[in-house]
Amino acid sequence: MTAGGTTAGRHPPVPPLEPPLPPPPARGPGVRGEPAAGAGRAPRFARALLVVNPASRRGAHFQRRALRAFARADVSCDVVSTAHAGQGAHLAATLAAAYDVIFTLGGDGTAMEVVGALAGNGGPPVGILPGGTGNLIARTLGIPLDVRRAVPSLLGGVNASVDLGVLTGARPGLRRRFAFAAGVGVDATMIADASVTLKRQLGVGAYVLSWSRAVLRRQAFLARVWVDGEPIERLASAVMVANFGAVLNDLIRLGPGIRQDDGKLDLCVFSPGTARDAVRVAWKLLRKDFRADPCMLYRAGRHFRVETDPPRMVQADGELLGKTPFEIAVEPLAAQLLVPRRWAAAGRAAGGGGGGE
User: Fold this and answer.
1) Torsion from C-alpha of 151, 121, 177, 167, nearest 10 degrees
2) Cα distances (angstroms) measured from residue 174 to each of 62, 73, 116, 170, 177
3) Is 94 helix (H, G, I), strand (E, B) or coil?
4) Which pTM was predicted?
5) Residue 273 CB: number of other CB atoms within 10 A?
6) Could you give the count of Cα atoms lying within 13 Å of 57 in the half-sphere of its Cβ?
7) Radius of gyration (C-alpha) of the chain in whole angstroms
């Protein structure tokens, strides 16, 4: 495999970006993630494209497992690999028309490059396979962390229309889509403190360790936030703008009534002043207890501006992007994601976690 080039699993390689790709194959019912004929039936796919970040943790090993899983499902799967940041978006946008579904295999950054490139353009749905360290998005969507199980779970899943957030500011020229959440404070410190070496050794445990350290430090800052023009000012240790409320298969819920398909995002501000406050807030999130608390504030909206004193690092879906100030707007139902049927059904029953066609 050459850097940035294309390879294939069992099938001929994808043509180079030039000349143009041949027209997509004929499509029948259920293509592009729409339900097949008959209520509740899963979509069926003939051709899949797998966008792989070979630099991700154990990337080659996961790729082999994924290709075997596609072969067992009788789905033709071509592979393209990325060589640098941003290339996943280019490959997805250029090649998507020839495929019924696009899969990503890498970290959350690779997944969001592809999701962002296809957002709002009527392209094929995106299935996110766990191949990174944290796999935040895959965990949030209830996707099995074993690639061999994730592939059939998504191929037999449903298509969920999901809102996206668009973050601007933080650094000159930045415009970054995110699916899960963006924020400053404890969450960004957790990302910054999880070193590459620690992530290789502990995987997602590296984030748990760095989150614990950040919580115990309780580094407060002055946050000024505008939600659809409403000003909010308070000391905080974490300010998040969330799209999904459920974290780690609903182990933690960030706030009340947070949905990823309601055309809004949700501001979550956490302001523990003491270690006892921090423990209480964490316990309430675990118990999904959102009764009034002076250390927890929530607002839903469509446009947000966040300023801090002093300036703080900003993260979105686990990627550090720059420093405050920044702005966020919602793109309603911009992304089409494949999700496991069980996750979608659980979300409908609970009124929050998932939703699909």
Assistant:
1) -170
2) 31, 40, 14, 7, 10
3) helix
4) 0.79
5) 13
6) 19
7) 20
Alpha helices in the chain, H assignment, sequence order: 59-72, 87-95, 108-118, 136-140, 147-155, 186-193, 196-202, 205-217, 275-287, 341-350
* Cα–Cα dist 310/31, whole Å: 50
Residue-wise pLDDT for 257-282, tens only, equals 999 999 999 999 999 888 888 888 88
DSSP 59: H
What is the Cα–Cα distance from 327 to 168, expressed in whole angstroms?
5
Domains of the chain, earliest start first: 6-156 (3.40.50.10330), 165-332 (2.60.200.40)
Instruction: For residues 123 and 104, give the distance between their C-alpha atoms in angstroms, rounded to a whole number.
Output: 15
Phi then psi dihedrals of residue 150, to 5 deg: -65, -40
Are the beta carbons of 177 and 166 closer than 8 angstroms?
yes
Calculate mean pLDDT across residues 296-324: 94
Instruction: Confirm if 304 and 241 have CB atoms less than 8 A apart.
Output: yes
Amino acid, res. 287: R
* C-beta separation of 144 from 342 below 8 A: no
Buried/exposed 209-224: b ≥16 CB within 10 Å, e otherwise: ebbeebbeeeeebebb
Single-letter code of the amino acid located at 5:
G
